Amino acid sequence: QVQLVESGGGLVQPGGSLRLSCAASGFPFSLYYMSWVRQAPGKGPEWVSDINTGGFRTAYADSVKGRFTISRDNGKNMLYLQMNSLKPEDTALYYCARGDRTFHDYRGQGTQLTVSS
Known about the structure:
0% of the residues lie in helices and 54% in strands.
Protein backbone atom coordinates (compact mmCIF):
# COMPACT_ATOMS: atom_id res chain seq x y z
CA GLN A 1 0.00 0.00 0.00
CA VAL A 2 1.04 3.61 -0.45
CA GLN A 3 3.06 4.91 2.46
CA LEU A 4 4.48 8.39 2.97
CA VAL A 5 6.48 8.97 6.14
CA GLU A 6 7.72 12.45 6.98
CA SER A 7 10.56 13.29 9.32
CA GLY A 8 12.81 16.16 10.26
CA GLY A 9 10.44 18.55 11.96
CA GLY A 10 11.23 20.30 15.20
CA LEU A 11 11.62 23.60 17.02
CA VAL A 12 13.66 26.23 15.21
CA GLN A 13 14.39 29.86 15.97
CA PRO A 14 13.26 32.52 13.51
CA GLY A 15 15.80 32.85 10.73
CA GLY A 16 16.89 29.26 11.12
CA SER A 17 16.90 26.37 8.69
CA LEU A 18 15.60 22.83 8.64
CA ARG A 19 15.24 20.05 6.11
CA LEU A 20 12.19 17.83 6.00
CA SER A 21 12.30 14.36 4.47
CA CYS A 22 9.59 12.05 3.19
CA ALA A 23 10.14 8.36 2.58
CA ALA A 24 7.79 6.94 -0.02
CA SER A 25 6.91 3.30 -0.60
CA GLY A 26 4.23 1.11 -2.14
CA PHE A 27 4.08 2.84 -5.52
CA PRO A 28 6.41 3.80 -8.41
CA PHE A 29 7.69 7.00 -6.85
CA SER A 30 9.52 8.23 -9.94
CA LEU A 31 6.29 8.31 -11.94
CA TYR A 32 4.44 10.77 -9.71
CA TYR A 33 4.53 14.47 -9.03
CA MET A 34 5.03 15.06 -5.31
CA SER A 35 4.05 17.95 -3.08
CA TRP A 36 4.51 19.43 0.34
CA VAL A 37 1.40 20.72 2.06
CA ARG A 38 1.15 22.36 5.47
CA GLN A 39 -1.60 23.07 7.94
CA ALA A 40 -1.28 25.61 10.70
CA PRO A 41 -3.41 25.40 13.84
CA GLY A 42 -6.93 26.58 13.16
CA LYS A 43 -6.35 26.93 9.43
CA GLY A 44 -6.99 24.84 6.36
CA PRO A 45 -4.34 23.00 4.36
CA GLU A 46 -1.96 25.17 2.35
CA TRP A 47 -0.06 23.83 -0.64
CA VAL A 48 3.62 24.72 -0.24
CA SER A 49 5.49 23.27 -3.20
CA ASP A 50 5.52 20.57 -5.82
CA ILE A 51 8.05 18.86 -8.05
CA ASN A 52 7.70 16.98 -11.29
CA THR A 53 8.67 13.38 -11.82
CA GLY A 54 12.20 14.10 -12.98
CA GLY A 55 12.85 16.69 -10.33
CA PHE A 56 13.73 19.47 -12.76
CA ARG A 57 10.51 21.49 -12.52
CA THR A 58 9.37 22.93 -9.23
CA ALA A 59 6.71 25.36 -8.04
CA TYR A 60 6.24 27.24 -4.80
CA ALA A 61 3.59 29.14 -2.94
CA ASP A 62 4.34 32.86 -2.82
CA SER A 63 4.65 32.63 0.95
CA VAL A 64 7.73 30.40 0.73
CA LYS A 65 9.24 31.33 -2.63
CA GLY A 66 12.93 32.09 -2.34
CA ARG A 67 13.19 30.49 1.09
CA PHE A 68 12.16 26.85 0.54
CA THR A 69 13.58 24.34 -1.93
CA ILE A 70 11.90 21.08 -2.85
CA SER A 71 13.91 18.18 -4.22
CA ARG A 72 13.66 14.45 -4.74
CA ASP A 73 15.87 11.41 -5.05
CA ASN A 74 14.09 8.88 -7.22
CA GLY A 75 16.76 6.26 -6.57
CA LYS A 76 15.97 6.39 -2.86
CA ASN A 77 12.22 7.14 -3.12
CA MET A 78 12.77 10.27 -1.04
CA LEU A 79 11.26 13.75 -1.13
CA TYR A 80 12.85 16.71 0.64
CA LEU A 81 12.03 20.26 1.63
CA GLN A 82 14.90 22.54 2.56
CA MET A 83 13.55 25.47 4.55
CA ASN A 84 15.66 28.56 5.16
CA SER A 85 14.98 31.95 6.74
CA LEU A 86 12.15 30.42 8.73
CA LYS A 87 9.43 32.67 10.14
CA PRO A 88 6.94 32.10 12.96
CA GLU A 89 4.18 31.98 10.36
CA ASP A 90 5.82 28.87 8.89
CA THR A 91 4.76 26.97 12.02
CA ALA A 92 2.55 24.12 10.87
CA LEU A 93 2.18 20.39 10.41
CA TYR A 94 3.95 19.57 7.16
CA TYR A 95 2.78 16.71 4.98
CA CYS A 96 4.19 15.18 1.88
CA ALA A 97 1.55 14.24 -0.64
CA ARG A 98 1.38 12.30 -3.86
CA GLY A 99 0.33 14.63 -6.62
CA ASP A 100 0.69 18.24 -7.63
CA ARG A 101 -0.88 21.41 -6.29
CA THR A 102 -4.23 20.67 -7.93
CA PHE A 103 -4.75 17.09 -6.78
CA HIS A 104 -3.37 14.81 -4.08
CA ASP A 105 -4.56 11.29 -3.47
CA TYR A 106 -2.33 10.22 -0.56
CA ARG A 107 -0.49 12.06 2.17
CA GLY A 108 1.54 11.11 5.20
CA GLN A 109 0.90 11.70 8.88
CA GLY A 110 2.96 14.85 8.89
CA THR A 111 5.88 16.29 10.81
CA GLN A 112 5.55 19.34 13.06
CA LEU A 113 7.57 22.48 12.50
CA THR A 114 7.53 25.15 15.18
CA VAL A 115 9.35 28.42 14.58
CA SER A 116 9.73 30.34 17.81
CA SER A 117 12.31 32.11 19.88
